[in-house]
Design a protein that fits this description.
- With 151 residues, this protein is an all-alpha fold.
- It has one domain.
- The chain is 44% helix and 0% strand.
- It contains 3 helices and no strands.
- Helix 1 crosses helix 3 and helix 2 packs antiparallel against helix 3.
- The longest helix has 33 residues.
- The radius of gyration is 21 Å and the shape is extended.
Amino acid sequence: MADLHETVHPIDDGSPRDVWPAMKRGWRQRCPSCGSGRLYGKYLKVNDVCPECKTELFHQRADDAPPYFVMTITAHIVVGGILILEQLYSPPTWVQLAIWLPTLVLLSLWLLPRVKGTLIGYQWALRMHGFGDPSLDEPEEWPPPPAETAS
C-alpha cells in the first residue's frame, strides 16, 4: 500500500465525470479515474490510492450496499432457476440442492467485488464522500440555528 503522505493529489478541476464509464471500470475492478490501476489490493480490500494515476480511493463508503445488491441478484437467479427446474423436471430435493447451493455461493463470490467496484465508480463519478470537494461532504447542522430577529 502506498503511504498517504506520499500521495500526489490530483487537482479536481470540477469537470464533469461520466458515470457509466466509471461504473464499468469499477465492474472490471479497475480505478474509476484511469481505468488501468487495480481497485483492490486483496479480494475486497480497496487500495488507498490507485497504483497508476495516484487517485485517492480510500474515500469510498461502499459499506453494506454491495452485499444487499448481491443477495437480491443471486436470490432472483437462484429462486427463478429452482422454480423453472421444478416445473420442467421435478427433480428430487438433493438434485436441487446439489445444483443451486454451489451456484449461489460461486455467483455471490463472483459478483461481490464487481458490485462493490461499480458502487465505488458511481461514488467517484458523483464526487461523493470526499472524491470531490470535501466541503460538500460536511453534514448540515440539524436542527438549524434559530434565525435572528430584527428589532
